[in-house]
TrEMBL record:
Residues 11-103 form the SnoaL-like domain. It comes from the Bacteria. Coiled coil: none annotated. SUPFAM superfamilies: NTF2-like. Transmembrane segments: none annotated. This is Nuclear transport factor 2 family protein. InterPro entries: NTF2-like_dom_sf (IPR032710), SnoaL-like (IPR037401).
């Protein structure tokens, strides 16, 4: 896959993720891909292990992509991952080798109430 094909592959990946199509969702990964969750200290090695770990989650998940940006072999997706109706603002950093994801790191941020000290300078994001 050439660099210009990566955005299309990412869109297919996130669409399949939202649809719960675990096979199509994981087409983007190399067989030896590594997935890191720094906040929980977890690392999952191998495409099948990544897929199995996600399929085992009992939660109803929804994915809403806000932005995909990148170049060459490094791509970032900002999205809202909703577990059973509870949103988590998420960033996925994917490193590609030969057109497939070799390494992904995901960061999760739960929503919080805005600070009153900055209220006069902010606008609410939908």
């Amino acid at each position: 896959m050439e660099g210009r094909d990566i955005p299309a592959a990412l869109h297919r990946h996130w669409t399949a993720s939202d649809a719960g199509d675990f096979e199509a969702e994981h087409d983007i990964y190399r067989e030896d891909a590594v997935l890191d969750y720094p906040q929980s200290g977890e690392r999952i090695r191998g495409r099948r292990n990544i897929q199995s770990s996600r399929a085992a989650q009992p939660n109803r998940k929804r994915f809403s992509v806000r932005r995909i940006t990148g170049a060459d072999d490094l791509w970032v997706t900002e999205y809202v991952l909703t577990y059973d109706g509870r949103p988590s603002f998420t960033v996925s950093i994917m490193e590609f080798v030969d057109g497939k994801v070799a390494r992904e790191t995901q960061y999760f941020g739960d929503p919080f109430e805005p600070g009153p000290s900055r209220a006069q300078w902010v606008e609410r994001i939908p």
